[in-house]
Amino acid sequence: MAAAAPAEQKSDVLTAEAFDKIARTILKNVYPYLALQIKQDYGITKGVCVDAGAGGAYLSVELAKITDLQIKALDIDPEAIKIAERNIRESGQSAKVKTVLADVQKMPFADASVDLVVSRGSFMFWPDKVKAFREVWRILKPGGAALIGGGVGKLMPQDEKDLIKDKMDKGELGPPQELRVGLDEVGQILRKAGIGRFEISSDDACLCGLWIEFRK
Looking at the domain that runs over 7-215, which CATH code has it been given? Predict the structure, then answer.
């Protein structure tokens, strides 16, 4: 699970180690399915990808396994970066995945320099979501794509989704209620960020399972 809130703010919810434990156990099967979905839906297999709020870089690693993307696993939390570097090294994907310690609201990438932006489990923690989405739009190349959300994706088998949903229903997973955002609010955020065309969908396997998609 990834988060891009300031470390002091995120620690009030879950530490980087706690996020990583969830990612390695309950959510471990989410990332391969989601990486495959991204590859199938967008067909972007080369160029630069930014995993915004990458946490332990699990999605980054799975994308690296099935594409030739050069992936920047970005997170603002130094502890998350340490965990990501360990996971990247252990996965054997160090040549394709590099960590970046930075804020999603001020990413150190040039305008129109990135082919794909992905983020799973992070955007609900972004303090200024309008500013963050403006940054995503800024760094995307014309024709580039973004998938940002908090669910499990559409390729995971239903029985596996049900197990995760059961954890959600018991309150064992997901951000606090006050951090969750609805479809209407997300639409307003995107329009304020200058993103005119987008799709928002709901992932019923996860109470915080909104997915935001757009192309530049």
Answer: 3.40.50.150
Q: What is the DSSP string of 57-101?
A: THHHHHHHHHS--EEEEEES-HHHHHHHHHHHHHHT-TTTEEEEE
The pair of structure tokens assigned to 92 is 């054997």
Query: Half-sphere exposure of 95 toward its Cβ, with a 13 Å CA cutoff?
Result: 4
CB-CB contact of 140 with 146 (8 Å):
yes
Q: How would you label 37-61 residue by residue, b for 16+ Cβ within 10 Å and e otherwise?
A: bbbeebebeeebbbbbbbbbbbbbb
Q: Count of residues for the chain? A: 216
Q: For 138-196, how does the pLDDT look when each residue is reduced to its tens digit (9 = 90+)?
A: 999 999 999 999 888 889 998 888 887 777 666 555 555 555 666 778 999 999 999 99
Give the Å distances, CA to CA, from 7 to 98, 130, 191.
20, 20, 28
* Residue the block writes with tokens 């990438």: 109
3-state helix, strand, coil in the chain (%, to 5): 40, 20, 40
pTM over cut 0.90: no
Q: Residue ranges per domain, the chain?
A: 7-215
Contacts of 40 (CB under 8 A, 6+ apart): none
Torsion angle (degrees, nearest 10) of CA 97, 145, 24, 36: -100
DSSP reduced 3-state for 146: strand
